[in-house]
Each structure stands twice: as C-alpha cells, then as structure tokens.
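hiii so my PI (J.) wants the whole complex modelled not just the main chain, which honestly fair. so below is everything: three entries, each one labled with what it is. i double checked the lines twice but i was tired so who knows lol
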Amino acid sequence: MDLKVNSSVATRDERDAVDSVLGKPTQYTQGGQRFEQDLRVSRAGEALRNLRHMLLPTLHAVNDRIGWISRGSINYIAQQLDIAPAEIYGVASFYALFSTTERTMRQVHVCIDLACRAMGGLREDQLPEGTHPSPCLGTCERAPAVLVIEAGNPARHEVLAPATPVQITALAKGAWPDAEATVVSATPQVATDSKNLVLLGRIGKVDPLSISDYQEHGGFDALRKAMQLGATGVIDEVNASGLVGRGGAAFQTGRKWGAVAGQPAFPHYAICNADESEPGTFKDRVIMEGDPFALVEAMIIASFATGCEQGFIYLRGEYPRAIRNVQNAIDESTKHGFLGANILGSGFNFALSIVRGAGAYICGEETAIFNSIEGYRGEPRNKPPFPVEVGVFGKPTLVNNVETLVNVLSIVKDGGAAYAALGTEGSKGRKLFCLSGAVAKPGVYEVEFGITLRQLIELGGGMRNGSTLQAILLGGAAGGFVGPSDLDLPLTMEATRAAGSSLGSGVVMVLDQSVDMVDQLRRIAAFFRDESCGQCVPCRVGTVRQEEIVSRLAKGVQAQDIELLRELGTVMRDASICGLGQTANSAIDSAINKLKVFAQ
Amino acid sequence: MSTQVTTGLQVRRSVQLTIDDQSVTVAEGETILSACRTMGKEIPTLCYGDTITPKNACRVCMVEVEGSRVLVPSCSRKVEPGMVVRTDTERTDHSRKLVLELLGSSVDLSLTKNVARWNTEYGSEPTRFGKPAAPTNHRDEATTGHHHVADGSSVSNVLQPVKIDNELYIRDYSKCIMCYQCVDACGEQWQNTFAIGVAGRGFDIRISTEFNVDLTDSACVYCGNCIQVCPTGALMFTSEHNMRDAGTWKEEEQTQTDTICPYCGVGCALTLHVQDNEIVKVSSPSDHSVTHGNLCIKGRFGFQHVQNRAE
Amino acid sequence: MVGLATVFGAGGGTSSYQEVETTDLIVMWGSNARNAHPIYFQHVLKGIHNGAKMYSVDPRRSETAQWADLWLGLNVGSDVALSNTIAREIIHAGLTNRSFIENSTSGFAEYAASVEEWTLEAGSKVTGVPGEAIRELAHALGNAKTAQICWTLGITEHHNGVDNVLSLINLALLCGHIGRPGAGLSPLRGQNNVQGGGDMGALPNKLPGFQDVEDDAARTKFENMWNVTIPSKNGWNLTQMFEAMEHGKMKSAFVIGENPAQSEADGAHATALLKNLDHLVVQDIFLTKTAELADVVLPGSASWCEADGTVTNSERRVQRVRKAITPPGNAHDDIQIILDLAALMGHSWKYDSSEHVWNELRSLSPMHFGMTYARLADLGGIQWPCFSEDTLEPSYLHGRLWAQKLEDRGRLAPFSVVIDSPPVEKTTPEFPLRLTTGRRLDSYNTGVQSGGFQSPLRMAETIDMSPEDAVSMGIVDGEIVRITSPRGTVDAPARIDDGLRPGLVFMTPHFPDEVDTNLLTIEAIDPKSGTAEFKAAAVRIDKISKSDIRVPVAGE
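here's the output for the full assembly
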C-alpha cells in the first residue's frame, strides 16, 4: 500500500527484534537496503497482506527486547508488513502487556485480583514504587502472586508466588525471584490419591519436558488409537462421552467437532483456547506446566478428527512457564514425528504453534481470539456466522479449551461410554476445580461430577485454621457468589444453574470472614472496566457506570443506586456483543441478591 | 437491440418472517432492520450507516428474536425463514433506553440526529447517573488495562478539547460514540489510507492517528470520507465548525444540490450545501454507483475557487 | 480515444467502474490513479480486496505502484517495447485465446510476426524491466479469466500515444479480455468532461454521438435540423490549429474554458502564437493567462455549480450538473452567452433551458436517445449507448465480438502492428536527465481551480529526484536548483523521492505562475491524436547560488 511513515527510525536493536520474527527485509520498500532491482520492480499486494498474522508476534519481539514499542519500531514493522502505522498503533495499544510509551526494562506486575487480595495481597493503592497492578495472574493456589518481566535479549519472565510486600519491593529494585515452586504443589491430590487421577495423572510423575517420559506413561497411545478409529470414529466416541466444553459455555464438544469436520470450505483450523484469564482460574496453567504433551496430543487428535492441518494454542502471555513447557512439547513432538507431515504414517499433516497473548482477558472470547491471531485488535466478532463455519482467517475453526481437550485422551483410549458413565446425568465425566482462598490446601482438584461444595472444600483440607466461611465465588468474576447455606450444592452444571449460579471455568474461591466483600465487588467492577474491549456501548460504558455505582454504594447505600445497577445489569446481559459484557454484572448481582451485601 | 440490464445481477430468493405479529416477505440477505424499514417501522440506529458494513457497536437497534437468549442487533442480523421478531417489548425498550442513557451520559450527543426524540420516546434520562466529570485532555494518554478506580462522585465521560490541526476539518471527539464508521471509511472499506485507527481499550477506546500525531503528520489525505459517515458531528468541515461557533450556521436555510465534480474524469457525484449563495459544505450521495458517498480532497474541499470573490 | 475508435469504432472505455471490482487481474499502465483518479482507485481496491491481482507499469514507483502485487518500472516511452514483449511471451507460452483471435479479430499473423523479435531479453534491454517480471505479467494476463487494462496520460502523452494505446488493445485482443463482464479496457480521462466533449462532437472529425463529419448521411441529418450547411471535410485539432497559427492560416480564435497559454507543451511558443492572432476571444470563469492575451473576455459560469447541463465520465456515464449558486457579477450562463452571440450575428436560437438543448441532441444522437433528464436523475446517470427510454445496455461494450454468428460480430477487431519508438528527445551529456510529468493528489492541471483552496498536503512545485542523483549532484532536500531543457529554464526546490530511480526526475504542471514546467516540456505531437509528449523531455539540473535564483515570468 502507499504507506506513509514519519521520520522516526528504528534503532538497531529494534530492527533486530523485528527481523528475528520476520527475517531481514528482501526489498527496499520493506525497509531494506536499496539495490539495483529495487529501481525496477517491487512487490506488495497479497503476498504482504497474507503476513498480517505476524503482527502480534512481531510486537511481542520488540516489546520483549526493548521493553516498549516506539514510533521508530512501528514504522519499521509498517514497512516490513505493509500495514499502516495507525493500524499497528491501534493493535499495540489494545494489549496491557505492551506499552507505546517508554518505560523501564523491568516490569513488576503485582496481582491485585480477587484471590490475591482475599489472601492478604496488596491492593492497587498499596503498591510499592516501580510496580503496577495486574489482573489475576492465574496463580491463585499460591496467592498472592507477582509476575516479573525483564526486557532484553532474551527477555526474562518469572512468577513469584506467594510474594510478600518486602519481596515485591525488592523485585522493583532489581532482585530476581528464585525458581518457581514445582507444578505439583498446585495439585495436592497427587500426594494422596494419585492413582485415581486421570486428567492430572501424570503431573508430578513425569518430567514435563521429556517426551520419552511422556510416552512411558501412556503418551500418544490415544493418538494411535484415534488413528485406528478414524476421524468419524473419534467424533463418535466424543459424542458418546457427553463431554461438554470446560471453558464456561458448556457446548457439546462432539457436536462442535462434527460441525467443523463437515464444513465444505477448507482449510479448517484448530485453536486451543489457553488464554485462561478468568479471575480465580488456574487449571489450564497447571496442565500446560505439568503435562504439556497431553495438550499437544489432544490437539493432534482434535485436528485429525476435524480435518485441520494447522492449529494454534492461544496461550496467555502471563504464563511464562506454561509457554516454555508447551513450546518444548511442540518442538519435541515435531522432532519425534508426532507433528508435521504424515504423522505416524497416517498421511495426516498437522502443524501446531503457540500464539502468545499480550494481556487481554477478552481474547479468551472465542471470536476475539480470531482477531488477535490474525493481527487485529482482539475485539469479539458478531455471531452468526459461528466459528465452525467462519472462524479464523474466515475459515471453519474448532475452538476448544485446554481442559476440554485433555479429556479427549481418556475418551479415545477408554471409549466414550466409559466416560459417560462417570458423573451425573446432566454433567458427565471428570471436572477440574480451581480451589482457592481460605482453604487448607488450595489447588486444582480432579473429581467426578456430582460432589458437593462441602465435599470439595473437605477434599481441600477444609477451611484454613481460624477461618470462618463468608462466601464462595463460583465460576470467577463472570460467575456468581453463593453463601454458607449453599454448601450442599452439588457441583454440577444442572444444580448450579438451578441455583441461579454457574460452574463457569471451575472456580471455587472460598472467602472467609476477613474478606471485605464490598472491596471484592469493587475489584470485580474495576476488572470488567479494565478488560472490556470497548466495542459495544452496554459493556464499554456499562462497566464504567457499574464501577461508579458500586463505589457510591460502598460509601452509602441508596435504593435508587441498587435499582440503577439492576437496570445496568439487564442491558449488559441483554445487549452486549459477547459474554464479557453479558456476565459483567452477574457476580455483583448475586452478591447483592444472595449475600445481601448492600442491604440497608 | 439488447434489453439486458447490468451484469452480475443475481436472482435472490425471498424470505418470509414475522415481525411484531405481522408477516413480511423480503429478499434473502436483507437484515431485520431493512425488513422493518420496508414495513415502515422505525428502529433507532446510531452507529449504522448505509455505506459501511454494520459494526453493531451501539446496540440501540436491538430486537428480540424467538429462540435467542440475548437481544439481536437488527442492523446486521440477516433475516431467516420463519424468524419471529419483536421490536417493541419491555426488553427492547429497556435496552434502547439504557443505551441512550449510557451514551448520553458519556458523550455530547447535541448534534446527533433524533436523539432528543428517542430520549422522550424511551424515557431516557442520561443525567440520572450523576454529575458529569470535567473535560480532560488526557484521554489520548490512557494506559491500557488500567484506570484510576472510580470513587463514584462524578460520572466519567469523553469530554475533551476539539482537535484543530489543519485548515479543512476538525475532530471533536467529545461527540464521538465510537461507531467505527470513520475508521472503516478511512480503512479497508473505502479509502484504504488507514490514517486513523481505533486505539486503546474499554472506556479509553478512541479514534487516533499513530501516537496521536496531528493529522498533518499522519497519512491523512483529506478525502473527508470520515466526515461523510460521521453520525454525530464529531468530524466536521472547518467552515461548518466556524459558522456554528459564530452562530451563523443555518441548516434550515440551506439548499442541497446534486452535481458532478469539476476535476478529473471519474465523474464523482457531489451534493453542494449552499447557504446565502455560498457553498458551505460538500457531501456525496451514498447510493451513487461511482462514489458511494466517497470523494477525494479536490471533490470534497476544492470548491473555493468559485467563491474566492473580490470584495 | 483515437486508438479505441480505430479498433472498435467507439471512442470510449469498454468497461464500467464496477467491473474492476470483480475482475481477476488489474493492470494499471501509465496511470497513478491512486492520486490522479482517487475514486476510480477505490473501485480498484475493492477488486484487490476481492482477490484480484494488480500490476502497475510506470517509470515511477507511484502511490498506485505501491499497491501492486508487482510493479514494473519501465524506461519512459518504452511502453510499446514492453507490450510487444509481453505479447510475444503470451504467444510463445501458448496463452492466447485462440478461438477469440480466430473468430473476432483480424491481422493476427502479421501482428505475431511483428512482435517475434521481442524476446524477454530484447524487451528487458529496451524497457529496463527484468525479463522475469515481464514474463510474470505476460502469464498473469494470459492466465486471467478476466482482466482490466487501465491507462491514463502515461500512455497518451507521448509522441506515439495512439500507438501506445493500440499496443495495449493488442494485449486485450490476444487474450480475449474485451467485450465480457469484467474484461475490458479502461482509459481514465484527465478532465471531468473530456469524454463528454467528444460525445458532443467537439472533435474536428465528429458530429455529436461520434457520427462522422465526412459521412454524408449523418451530416444531412444535422443540416436538416439546423438548417445550415456543414463543411464536409474534417477540421483541425488543437495541434493543427497552432500549426495554422504559425503559418498564418488561422487568424482568430474563440477559446472556451481552456488555458492553452499555460497548458500547452512549450508554453512560451504557444503564448507567442496566441499573441500574434488578429482576434482572440476567451470565455472563462477566471482571467487566465490566456484570457490576459485576449481582445475580448466573456465571463462564463462554472459549469458544475453555476449552470445546468450534463457531463460524461470515463465509464461513458452521462450525468447531470446543476446550478447551485448564482455566478458573480456580469458572469453569464455559457449557453446564454452562445445564444447572445448568435443573436448578435443575426440568428435567433430558441432554447429555453439546458434540457431543451439536450433533447435536441437526443433526437440527433441515437446513442443518447434513451437518456431523458428524468432518467438521468433517477438512475444516477446513464452509460452510453442508451438507445431507448425503457432499456439499458450492458455495462461493457463490444459484446458483439463474442456473438455466435459471424454476421452479429460486426467489424472484427484488427490487431495493429506497432513499432517501438523512443521519446523524440534523447537524453544527452548536456541534458542527461529524463523529465516526466504528472499530477499530485490535491492539485489539478494548471491550478486554476485547485489553487482556490488551502490544502494541508500542498507543496509548491518541486523537482523530484532520486536519492542517488541528489547525492551524486550534492543536492539536499529543499535546495533550489535550476532545471534546463533545450527550450527553457526554471528554478525549483529539489525534493528527494525514492520512487524515482537515478536519471529520472519528475515535475507537475500545477504551479505555472511560480514554476512553469511547460517551459521545459517538448512540443512533440502525436499526429493521430494531437497530444504532446509531456511525459518525456531531457533536462539538466544545476546547482545555483541563492542570489542567482530567478523568478520566472510565464510566457517570457
């Protein structure tokens, strides 16, 4: 295109960072040197437009190396990718992990979200200099958590949890955290009940970086079985299992697979939604850190069944260890012939890569993921058309959550019927719960559907010493609160729905008497305001008004404010484009109606 | 002699659906909104424009569709056979009322057509959220994903100074409802210049050049196609802005005359807005096959040579 | 127009703007439509987004070229060489549309023989474009289901402009890219009513509706209507008129809405000839440089906003212009001025409106017959031909060439043997740089209209040069330099443009009062079209000291 870039020029480091993703420019017009041939021919057009999906990785490369994204680097990216600077700026400024203003190489992201603040973490107004607030870092079992990023070549990313204020201050001043606690610390059942675990079965037993270890523990058996069953056979088993999506929306997985497989348009794409950002959720992180090959194997099976030759794992940028381990699993699997051309001699080809998120809760929305992968702002798309027909790059696309996918391994190995025999009539199979807050042993728990809240808390060692239950948040910020009287609620889709709540992503956050519920509600409101993409009015303005009203209620309860909140909740639920806006009021609404938080 | 009409015409099947208990038949591919319009039903719209693919961002045109858990944007949802639509239920009215209030409490809608009437019709009171916060000139510096936690004492809004950085048009983003139309017109849907984009996130979302540089440092080519599609007066000819400031803008006294641009041989359709024998603004008919409402700098702003008159 | 009329019998673009949105291949040849025809380029962009490939052929890597899948930067004036090379490659690769050539064209064998010498190597040597790039464009043309070949003044403003057009038509004929939806030839007109002027008979050899002056039957029809005798021989085109002035054969002129003192190549010469006339009448909305030379100036009205009438655009669409404002002072409607002149000369012409004039035209020009004012308004203009008041014709011309029966195909389209002919003025050690000219986005022709508004984009006139030339001559961006051609000298600031290669410099005609570019350009005329070779002069650039900068006087 007829690009116009201003006179700001990228530094050598910035150019190197861009080139590390895109390669050195081959033409003068793309920012390269001017050679004889550039005087007579140039190429732009479709060849460059097809590179748009490289924008997000390129922005990451600059942000990683330099710490922020300057005008000079945006100009250089503009030339390399033939995208206007204003467009690139729009994308870069969408993500919270990027900065378009100069900042220090060291960024200390302190989690101020629900579980951390319930566990004595710092609030936004208590942060030491040189740090800044972060939404939930998905390390709730070791709350409070901090993510440190040091730009450079290579950039370093590390999580410290739990983190004391003294440690946080030290990080801001240049200290570096010790190695993170092992993954197995997040799965207390492994120590006591290891043999009954399936989804978490390998965690703590295998080296997550070793493909041979994985294979010795049943790894890739399911893939071999899947290839015997054939694509239709696999979909039949998944259908028979009754598995539904574990990301929150609970759509039937088999039906989705069948729909994608049957689409006449090609290519098909598979996306693993690993943008786990719902406050209080950390199960996908634990799987990716502790058993990353399982996710890779499940992606291969899903893609085999649905006819996808390319897959993406859209992985949260705040999960450095998960990124490292999954990347290793992809590399090793490729090396051993489980990814690439003609997998296991079946004639099936499949390429898998990670797309690293850059700090945007909304990108966990299944259509926002598409825009993000394609190099656009991560704004949700209108539905219909649905992803199975028109998804990423405008093609039929399978989107599944991490937990959903790893369930498929046992379904394929042991048959759908065996899986369906587990759980209840309305909620079949196994489920991971993210138990956090005031329990003795917070962590990810694998259970058969059907146990009650009380049983789950007991599985987690009961309430922490000296704690009295005040409330439980089910399903995260987009879910709802229940009270001590709900402890016998079975943790099934049907029972929670009947109780006016939702399992969502499996969050069970236990809040004791020390927790300031109004503070929790203000944080929920602030969270949605920060994370709204801003596209539609009910969510963009509604989340702001909601926060303002909750803040007002915190100072003094007025009946008309309660009514305003109710009206806001209705318009957000009825008229928002996507699930973020539609659920932005649900936890607050439940706190007011069930827990009577603002009762006069 | 041939009687064939233009090429590429496809025969479209018709679709029967029910809107507010009335059966209606429209062509396949039509939207619920266009079906309503053929029935003479008014559905309020703000972000919808007839030359831009619907973004359905404002959510004021929501209707109920049987079988749908949430309301449905009528501007973009295509009709389906047997669809049962309701346009005036408690839910749709509530939704419109609240959307008008949310926008009205955060944006200056004084030049947005029909808003006053709709506020009355739906009982919207944008002031009921509280006292508006003072205008700020820091909206372009927002940090994505962070905001100062609201204390509830005032109501956040987008009020800010007018951006005046060139002779031809001004940008008054206090009036911007984020309909995305200017960005789409500047971008892939028409002009393909991409001088402006959507920047930031959430309530800090804004229309911006790269790093908020002045238009004169941006890729802007002053085609004014953004002004053409702006539904709120946020983008405006400098001539109109100045006349409004001086109190001399009299739209009711203006005439609008369609003609053809005097410059190159493309033959773009112009609508000349004339007040007191002066061209005060140029637009272009959105349904014209040559222009679809779009012009270049010469067609949009190059009219002064007929009225640079010696006093 | 001459080239298209020669081959197809109608001097108009064969396609419609909307067809470029659905075509497979777009070739922008000698056209920077992105700047010069921005709204046409929006249709091109729709095509590109719909999956069309776009190739740009232009000496400069223009704004248009920057959108191209492939830009071919040929030497100025080597268009015939390039197109002949493409043709040979298409033929040798077996990519011609054989049945179309056989059924609908004539002269293929002779043409094929004439391009045989143009191997990729030979073509590359003359055009400067790598053979591989030529091959790619040839194969794209040969393989496309439909292609649009678009051009502008980069093709026509040469001493062999008509041959250039013919050479592009040859390519369309080779592949059958004509007479089908999405396939055709689109010349983009430089002015808003160039097409309409031709339609209305403002050509020395045509009556309205492209009816030949030398066709007795056509002439008789007009003579009966007008009750006068029309000269039975073709008249002079503009170039021939200037020649006639030079030889004293033309002694007076009535110029309406033209500024030849500034718009003609070798402006100084044109001005001298105009000064020499016995009597010069100029009808214009401004006191132009030409009007300043006139014995009588008739203040007209701005046709697009101070008067009613019609214009025709580059897709043959006749559209209404309407009066929106009243012209100032003593300015009159142009129709009224003509009527008044007629009355003073003893003729009482009765036309009470522009529609009245138009309806007379409709009665005389079958291709306009179906275009009533009411229909023009309802349909947003109508493309010619439009033979009846209740039908419309296909949006493309020459579908007849694809007819099943030979008798329905009309005159078969002839291939034209065209010979490479480099620019008249060679570069020499004394004038080593090739000067070419073109438009900027916000300005227009001699700036009479576009000078009226303030544009944030506007730069004053510059001499654009490659970074390499600037370095080798020690010139910095913005430095005022002296540009000299065999005909004249102007001073202008240098502007470094990396869309130019060494040896190629660029200027516009937009600011003749400050920098009269046409003092430099060469009056080498294409005898068939009367268009001058604005696109190729030879110049030298000299550094000058500040005190030496001269303020040019136009017509000096």
